[in-house]
Design a protein that fits this description.
heterodimer, A: alpha/beta, B: alpha/beta, 4 helices, 6 strands
Chain lengths: 164, 170
């Protein structure tokens, strides 16, 4: 017995399924992009660890003052010249760490802008800060107590006197 | 020839007994077909609902901008530092906390954040944390929270930022 099919080939319509799949892929991609939280990664020292900051002679000290201006090793510096001033101080091949102190009254956005700049670096020369330490004020005070002096004290008005 | 065969099978009316020809909905006539739109809406609705459910904090604030933006990971516990949005609370500071599973709730200050973070770290020491702070708040407030989180045993956290506007500085 021959089954007559009317001369038409049986087929499964795949075009709607493919359209649906594309739509789902787009939606999943979009939702993952928009729902993800992104920002600057910060590692904190453990609660049992002491303050592990380097010796003052081995680091560069950068401060953000309340008006968002910057002081590098006691000298004022404009943000657009920060990287060029930092490069000879910390070196490129064996980079010294940069310790960042942000004044209590400085806007949080200014701190993020400085950290972002140091992390991105200078794309034309390839220089960027590889070791950036942002100790909390409590850690800085503990460090200063251990040192017996304020490591940021050399900069005018930027020392621990303006901290809480 | 074809005409005669049709007459033999269908009688006088050649279209009698035949299936009506399949017609694709092409939107002819100027109107958009509602079926694909309804399907799209039905697909979008669950995704939007899921996105709203999975977002544990929706405090409106102005995040600082940065070009370096790393993924904080899913299910991160979050600390929010924002300024009061309503007129009567304008200028006052608002702390909120979420363990990453439930919606954020308001807390009194850094000490409450320490206790809440300690509970999360005790339950899951590897839980990522994020700080979602308004770009305009004093850094001292963020520093207080950082110190409390450090004391609670948080080892890694992400300072949430937004992407800089195209062509502008962060």
């Amino acid at each position: 017995m021959r089954l007559r099919t009317g001369g038409r080939r049986a087929e499964i319509p795949v075009a709607p399924a493919a359209g649906l799949a594309v739509l789902l892929i787009l939606l999943v991609g979009l939702s993952s992009v928009f729902s993800s939280q992104r920002g600057l990664l910060v590692r904190l020292p453990g609660r049992s660890e002491g303050v592990a900051l380097p010796a003052p002679a081995d680091a560069a000290f950068l401060s953000v003052l309340p008006d968002a201006s910057l002081v590098l090793d006691g000298e004022p510096v404009a943000i657009d010249r920060l990287l060029s001033r930092l490069e000879p101080r910390i070196g490129r091949n064996a980079p010294r760490p940069v310790i960042l102190h942000v004044s209590d009254d400085a806007p949080y956005g200014a701190m993020v802008a400085v950290v972002d700049l140091l992390a991105i670096g200078d794309r034309s020369s390839g220089f960027r800060v590889r070791r950036l330490l942002v100790p909390t004020h409590a850690e800085l005070m503990e460090w200063a107590r251990a040192l017996g002096r304020d490591p940021f004290g050399q900069e005018g008005g930027g020392g621990s006197g303006e901290r809480r | 020839m074809r005409r005669r065969r049709g007459l033999f099978r269908d009688g006088a009316n050649p279209d009698l007994g035949r299936r009506p020809p399949f017609r694709r909905a092409t939107g002819a006539g100027g109107g958009a077909s509602a079926v694909p739109l309804a399907t799209l809406g039905a697909l979008l609705a669950p995704f939007l609902l899921l996105a709203l459910v999975t977002e544990v904090d929706r405090s409106p604030l102005s995040l600082p901008a940065s070009r370096v933006r790393l993924d904080a990971g899913r299910g991160a516990a979050s600390v929010v530092i924002a300024r009061g949005a309503r007129e009567e609370t304008w200028g006052t500071l608002v702390y909120r906390f979420s363990d990453g599973k439930e919606a954020s709730r308001r807390l009194g200050g850094p000490t409450d954040i320490f206790l809440a973070a300690l509970r999360v770290v005790t339950e899951d020491p590897e839980r990522p944390f994020v700080i979602k702070a308004d770009a305009g708040v004093r850094y001292g407030l963020v520093d207080d929270v950082l110190e409390q989180l450090r004391k609670a045993g948080v080892r890694e956290l992400t300072l949430l930022t937004r992407a800089p506007e195209a062509g502008g500085t962060p």
